[in-house]
Amino acid sequence: MNKFIITGNLTKDPELAYSGSGVAYCKFTVAVQRNFKKDEVDFFNCTCFKTQAENLANYQVKGNKLLVEGEVQIDKKDDKYFTNVIANNVEYLTPKGQSGQQTQQNNTQQKSQDDPFADGSKTIDINDDDLPF
């Protein structure tokens, strides 16, 4: 029996594509922290298909926590071996709405770091000595 179960976080937004015959598939990578060595992380490349692929791409973003059940598949190409998880079931563990809030907070923080005048409420005192002209 080939059964694989992991719980971890998406390393980037899932990538949705369609095969030549029109079947949806989604590639994504899950980062899983090791139990005994907290500083070490394993990365698992995963693929899911059809409706599950479309839902994953539409509703999940980088950082969201997932539980993935599937089978391990090992492929050989150009004398190199690649391990891939074919996901039969993907459960979303990040509460609904939380990922959007995190993304919005991150965007707001990034904007405020990029533009110190973004909120418009702060006054800035500049001495004449600081002016270049």
Automatic annotation (TrEMBL):
It comes from the Bacteria. One of its GO terms (cellular component) is nucleoid. One of its GO terms (molecular function) is single-stranded DNA binding. A motif (Important for interaction with partner proteins) lies at residues 128-133. Residues 94-133 are annotated as: Disordered. Keywords: DNA damage, DNA recombination, DNA repair, DNA replication, DNA-binding. Residues 96-111 have a biased composition (Low complexity). One of its GO terms (biological process) is DNA replication. Plays an important role in DNA replication, recombination and repair. Binds to ssDNA and to an array of partner proteins to recruit them to their sites of action during DNA metabolism. HAMAP family: SSB. Homotetramer. PANTHER family: SINGLE-STRANDED DNA-BINDING PROTEIN. This is Single-stranded DNA-binding protein. The lineage of its organism: Bacteria, Bacillati, Bacillota, Bacilli, Bacillales.
